[in-house]
């Protein structure tokens, strides 16, 4: 307490009040209610008329604060606003007997708290503002709590700038008070306001500081706030898992409305993850809780989500709903919009607007285009002030309607506007993972664009639609490494643990597993820290169009084909582009190709394993040859690519060893996940710096590194204990060619921790984030780190994709098991050609030309001559 001159018996009673208030602050409702009631019973033993003036004032303060404190657990446990306000009336009656401006202000504040929880934010705002304008609030604690509560009301009303101002002022008072719990509340709410204003990295940073201030807070509020930010960032799996934890803790703390909010957000995450039944279950539960709590706006939003989940599932289904069903859903949406209009906006969301967006999409699906147009006309232009996801959905339905009415120009304007919003959003994000995760919010918009392009029957339209979506989330979020010494220390610790695990023998399997699990937990912590880094890479690159690409190909002296693959509705298609024109080729069943790729990987693994008996290896080699021939016939024969080939694709086609397909022998072949800009033409003359390093456990690694080094004058070769992570990390940022004869692993569950093994432990892809590469060629030998994981939204993560995003001109890596002996034979030849030509595709083709067995090395790069920007 900040008051002075506490005399017995009042000092002891004030201490008991503090205990009860602390229980309330930690949402220990039953214990708080019990303590407040016992305290009030003891206070009522005193006759204020028999007390001296100071004693009477302290008795009155205790009575007022106890009645007001009791109103919180009464409302939380019973849900009765009337009973809680009656306790405020009793507090006001005590204050009138012993007038005190500070106590009168506290009564106003508590009425505001209760009105806010009951879904009456404007009445609450009036209460809080009246209290803050009066002379009664002077104590830091009272000012902090009042500002926190008014900030929450401003947030509910969508005025997030005012909310942030109140939260910052509350933090100043909490810091002056030295109250850890209130400091944590203020920091958490500052983070929430930053999130609503679009600063997601800043939001996570504030929320993490809040956890540090009060690490024992277990009511679910910290998890709920962080999960909402992760959802907005597109990290839906992480958000969903955290929301499940938040919901359980909020339920235990009897925070009913916050529990419902967690269920609502979890339903949104589940819908994005395409777990539609679970999404509807969560949304329905949230709706019922909101209805019981009098939160009409949130109840309407939950009902909209139920309809939206049905819509999303329908749009992804191969079965078209009947017109009657679609019309019924549209009517339901319009009905909810009327309820939402009456309830009004909350937390920046307008339920009436959200319902109209879903209703309009159902109307388009029903073919009622005039109805859809009328529904959209009731929405404000541009949806200014609405959350990102709602604004993107607005552009999505505008595009759907325009394409359905054959107004392609208008549809493309809507698509470009929506992608522009997403590009602006991703430009604020610093980590590669955050940039790729943001694509989750563009899934519907890009699908609408691509499907409309297919319906035109024009190959150029399909190519342009594919690259519009892909380019939005290409590249990196930062052009400088983040200044995060704590993350660097954590990675060093994880590296040390993995080195210890690597050195253990077979008899120490349990200890090795323990060390690996501990390292994995540290990696998760580092990963979460990276989400707080803000972006500084500037504008997103322009997508490449067919017209621009054909212009570049026409200037090439070589015969070049660009093959842009896409899987839709189970069918694999390819847009084939060369200097003479553009065509679409239907390849066939996507599932058949996936099965061939799976078999190839298994065959390469067996064929490269010297421990497997020779007859089994021979059988695997024969199977490998058959599968390569079959894939060649399926993927390449229809394309008639007799010269250079640039493949543009997503998984599983990025795992195809394209250079090993029979028809590609001796020909330049390159692969990438989109048509990238900025690659310059080869420069056969000129000095180039090379570093070659050999990691531990590679049988021929040292010989290979020295053999590669001999191909380059002035090369730096690191072997043994000299081949350490710091040297290699520095070389990647400074050298023109980097060759790594190391073992490595792609981690499908945590792809940014794909790694290459060096003397002092693994170098993780994550460590390179934000490090600009100088247009270098990186060769990853004897590794299986050419693989990548496709995350929600279609973007790719892995060591190869990170190196390309950071500016590597080309990455040559293996997409399947490559034996050490074969790598040692191929790599010196590759570098001899690379030194002479500065052409990584040509160097790989020449190195593999006379090799009898298939080699799963792939050159990841893009077309030369497409200007950056």
From TrEMBL:
Domain CHAT residues, every copy: 627-853
Repeat in keyword set: yes
Positions of TPR repeats: 184-217
One cellular component term from this protein's GO annotations in UniProt: cell outer membrane
Classification via Gene3D superfamilies: Tetratricopeptide repeat domain
Coiled-coil annotated spans: 236-263
Keywords: Coiled coil, Repeat, TPR repeat
BP GO terms, sorted: receptor-mediated virion attachment to host cell
One Pfam family recorded for the sequence: CHAT
PANTHER family, per the entry: TETRATRICOPEPTIDE REPEAT PROTEIN 6, UDP-N-ACETYLGLUCOSAMINE--PEPTIDE N-ACETYLGLUCOSAMINYLTRANSFERASE SPINDLY-RELATED
Protein name: Tetratricopeptide (TPR) repeat protein
Lineage: Bacteria, Bacillati, Actinomycetota, Actinomycetes, Micrococcales
